[in-house]
Each structure stands twice: as C-alpha cells, then as structure tokens.
Amino acid sequence: MDETIRSVLAEHGRLAVDPSSIDESTDLFDVGMTSHASVNVMLALEDAFDIEFPESMLKKSTFESIAAIRAGLLEVTSG
Amino acid sequence: MSAPTHMLGDVGTWLADAFPHLSADCGPRDQSSSLRVGVDLVAVADVAESVERFGDRYVRRIFTPHEISCCRSEETGGGMTPHYSCESLAARFAAKEAVLKVLRPTDARPEWCSIEVHRTHGGWCEIRLTGQAEAMRAQAGIDELAVSLTHHASMAAAVVVGMRCPGGRDVSSEVRNVDREVLGERGKE
Questions:
Q1: Cα B93 off chain centre by
Q2: What is the value of ipTM here, to two decimals?
Q3: Which of A16, A67, B47, B102 has a CB 3.0–4.6 Å from the CB of A24, allowing a cystine?
Q4: B181 contacts: CB under 8 Å, gap ≥ 6
Q5: 8-state DSSP, B5
Q6: What is the pLDDT of residue B135?
Q7: Do the bridges between strand B115-119 and strand B35-43 make them parallel or antiparallel, or are there none, so unpaired?
Q8: How far does the CA of residue B9 sit from the closest CA of chain A (Å)?
C-alpha cells in the first residue's frame, strides 16, 4: 500500500522532494503539495485502490502525510 | 477621499480605511473581526491536466452543475468528451480556495460543491454557499461575501472578501456606493 501511495504522490503530488524517500509523517503540504494537487492525489488513489473517499474524509488531515493517507485508505477499504 | 494606491495590496486595510464609520458601528476597529480576505492562484495547466487525466470525475467532484455549464467550451472535439474552458475552471477553483481562506476551517473542509461561483445575469459572479460551507459562514458571522476572478495566459486567480457586522447589518449597498466614488476619483488621475 505504501508503495502505491508514494507512486501516486510522485505522479500527482507535485512535491518538491522525492516522495519515495520522505518520512511517512512528513507534512505533504509543507513539501509542496497544493490543494489542487491533493485533489489529483485523491482521485488517483481512488483509481489505484478502486474506492471512493466519502465526503466526510475529504479534509486536509486525510491527505497530509503518507501515514494519514494509509490510515484513510484502510478506513475506506475496511468499511 | 483619495484613491487608494495599494488597491491590489492589503485589501483588508484599504476597506477598513475606506469604511471607518462601519468599523465604528461594528465595534472596535479590528480588521480581523470585521473583515476577512482570501486569495488564491491556480495554474491553468494543472486544471487542464486534471480534466484530461480524470475527466468528468474531476469536474463533477469539484464544480457544481451551474459552474460546469458556465465553463463549457465552444470548441467541439471529435469524441464524446465535453470540452471545458480550463481558464474558467481554474478561476473558479481559485475562488473556492479563497472562500475557504475566509471561512478558515480548522480541519474538516466543506464539500467543494457547497461553494459555488454563481454567474449572474449581469455577468458578474457571486458566491453561493450551501451545506457545510454555509454553516461555517454562519458560525463565523460573515454576512457578506464578494468575489472577483481573473485569468490571463497560464494563471487564474480569485480574491474573496468576507465582511461581518455583529449587528448583522447588510453593508453591501454601502460598499458599492463607496466603490463607485473611489472609481470616479481614480478616473480623474
């Protein structure tokens, strides 16, 4: 899962750093991800995992780090 | 009243200076309590890339049916995919972000479609809120929102001003009157 998340971030996150090497707790918005890029990340994650994030999860904290994204995906896929 | 030379700069300061009587009526002259301003800048290419990559999933997730109808391009392609004016979409995305900066959500953000840039019959745009965005507006005590959009070449931008008065007074007509006065003075320069 983390590998896919990092791959999505590499393609859509517009990060100023290499997402393959950042710590899972790094604030993605601090390293270059904009609000618009987070939309693309969300849509790409939905494609990658064949899910749809509920509106209740479309908040900044859901996509603020790799760890947060992982937790969000686990919540959606387990629900 | 002299025309402001920094109109594109500190909008909050300019508005507070332009309406000292409003500040007095609304309580202490605290710009953070009576005025809020949000601005955002979006690269048109980013929006175009999203439209190309995610198509209608992206468009319908972010924009309301009204916004989508306003942004449909006159161009027609060979396929079934509708064409959009990515400049217009980008400007509206910027406006939504600017509204959020006025609403100041702490974590949970309202649905993208609960913030609508509504084009009036006269051609200018207004902000219309529903759902959680409207609830946030009410909780913040913001009585009036004004928006201005622009796009040029590769960039689109929007600025939103939120105004509130503890008494809930509608100051929008006074804003327009002073705006005409200021524009008239600038025309003399």
A1: 10
A2: 0.86
A3: A67
A4: B1
A5: S
A6: 94
A7: unpaired
A8: 23
In B, minimum Cα distance to A14 occurs at: B46
A40 CB neighbours in chain B (<8 A) are 49-50, 53-54, 58
pTM of the model: 0.76
Once rounded to an integer, what is the mean pLDDT over residues B158-173? 72
Q: How far is CA A19 from CA A47, A68, B161, in A?
A: 19, 14, 36
Instruction: Tell if the CB–CB gap between B46 and A35 is shorter than 8 Å.
Output: no
pLDDT of residue B10: 53
Do residue B46 and residue A36 have CB atoms under 8 angstroms apart? yes
Distance from the Cα of residue A57 to its chain's centroid = 12
Does the beta-carbon distance from A36 to B47 stay under 8 Å?
A: yes
Per-residue pLDDT tens over the stretch B26-83: 444 444 568 999 999 999 999 999 999 999 999 999 999 999 999 998 654 444 456 8
Q: What DSSP letter does each residue of B109-139 carry, written as one string?
A: ---GGGEEEEEPTTS-EEEEE-HHHHHHHHH
Task: Name chain A contacts of B111, Cβ cutoff 8 Å.
Answer: 55, 58
Both structure tokens of B103:
């609403």
Q: Tell me the percentage of chain A whose pLDDT exceeds 90.
A: 81
Residues of B in contact with A36 (CB under 8 A): 42, 46-47, 50, 93
The amino acid that residue B52 corresponds to is E
Q: For residues B133 and B170, give the distance between their C-alpha atoms in angstroms, rounded to a whole number.
A: 20
Other beta carbons less than 10 A from residue A43's beta carbon: 22
Q: And the tokens for A28?
A: 């993605």
